[in-house]
Amino acid sequence: MEGPAFFRLPIELRLHIYRYALYDRAAITIGSAQLVGSPPDIVHKLYAQGRAPTPGLPYQHIPLIQPDYNDALLSLPNPAVFPAASLDSDATTNLPYCTKASLHLVSRQIHHDLLTHFNAPHHRQTRLFLSYPSGLHILRTLPRASTLLSQARSIHIAGSYTSHSFSAPRAANLGSDAPPPFVDQHFNGGFSPNSAGQLSTLLASLFGPKPAHSGLTKLELRVYYPGSDSYSVVWGDDNSPVVIALRNVFDGQVAVEVWRGQRGTGVYLCATRTTENGEKPKRVVSTIWRRLEEGRRGEPQCGSWVIDEKWPECGDEPATTPTGEGVVVTEG
């Protein structure tokens, strides 16, 4: 029996075809969405066919990995919701293989071609967008989600942080009508994720002394701290995402923008690797303070700052040192 016509092509031509086929998605977004609908529909989506809610996600939330850019999964004032009656039951569990892994699984002949004759391009193409803390938790715990790091060229994290040790005056500042991302939540499985530990592990694997993913060269972190006196939490809380980032980025150019407002504080941190293999690691941190205007008539919604207007288009240029008054630059 004659085999497929593809394998009768010269190996040189097949290798050219493989190279064109090795194109991964430009963007992947990971986050969680709340199920909405009738109680029977919600229960069916969460528990039917032996399923169970993902531990560590907010109550009645499901994990979502979208093969494109989805800002709803990153939004704070307008978080993503999905109708339980219409959601595909496999939408949260069918994580596609990256293109190279998929080619290896097509047939033994293609697997042999790739192992024997083909040098895969080292240029990574995927930009990975994560909500914080849910998207980060999904990346660190869902089977095969961590493999996305091997194909990502950059990581972009957006979310909010509220200190678990805030004082009574600060609790009053938050108010009882604070948007859902800014108040205490109940979590599936009865426990909240160790977001500080998960973020530390991720950043150490990217920019630590011995990075496991040195091919990923850029990190963007946009964190919103709600509350009129939240500025002290940015630097004073050991579990603050910005503090964790500065502790774990050992090498590269780090640009920090602190946006102070009357209703909250936003911090943007961009880290890019600047040293080559064999060079002594060097970290340069620059910080600038800006004014955040939100929440009043004619201004953006509180927390909407976490989504960069330029996303999903993100340049690969290194983090640049801000210029102007109030810039602080440190090296170490």
UniProtKB/TrEMBL annotation:
The protein's superkingdom reads Eukaryota
Name the record gives this protein: Uncharacterized protein
Organism, per UniProt? Extremus antarcticus
What lineage, starting at the top, does this entry show? Answer: Eukaryota, Fungi, Dikarya, Ascomycota, Pezizomycotina
